Amino acid sequence: MQIQNAKYELLNEQQQAEVQNFINSLLENQEAMKANFNASKYKKKLLKVSTWTENEVSVFEKNNKLFKKWTPSTW
After folding, report:
1. Which of 11, 47, 52, 74 could form a disulfide bond with 56, CB atoms 3.0-4.6 angstroms apart?
2. Contact call for residues 8 and 16 (beta carbons, < 8 A)
3. Alpha-carbon gap, residue 2 to 23, rounded angstroms
4. Does some domain include residue 7?
5. Is 75 within a domain?
6. Alpha-carbon distance 29 to 35, whole Å?
7. Position 55 confidence tier, pLDDT thresholds 50, 70, 90
8. Dist CA 48 CA 51 (whole Å)
9. pLDDT confidence of 10, banded at 50, 70, 90?
């Protein structure tokens, strides 16, 4: 923490004010995000994520094996 304070002290007044404004902006955004978070809405969004069956995944695995066996022709 002392290093950050030492760096902060190297800044002129205007730069220190900009840093303070930036920190305040970050804190305001953090509070706004907390206030806007809706667990129910987030849960519904997560439930809409698609899932694949074993059969669907096996198609990709089969094609991957075939692709690895394939050798390109040489010129």
Report:
1. 52
2. yes
3. 18
4. yes
5. no
6. 10
7. very high
8. 9
9. very high
Q: Write the DSSP string, 36-67.
A: H--HHHHHHHHHTS----HHHHHHHHHHHHHH
Mean pLDDT, residues 48-53:
88
Give 30's pLDDT tier (boundaries 50, 70, 90). Answer: confident
* Longest CA–CA separation in the chain, Å: 69
* CA 73/CA 64 separation, integer angstroms: 19
The residue count of the chain comes to 75
Residue 74 inside a domain? The answer is no
Mean pLDDT of 22-48: 86
Q: How many domains does the chain have?
A: 1
C-alpha 39 chain-centroid distance: 19
How many angstroms separate the CA atoms of 52 and 36, rounded?
Answer: 31
Place of tokens 């206030």: 35
Q: Which domain covers residue 27, as residue numbers? A: 2-69
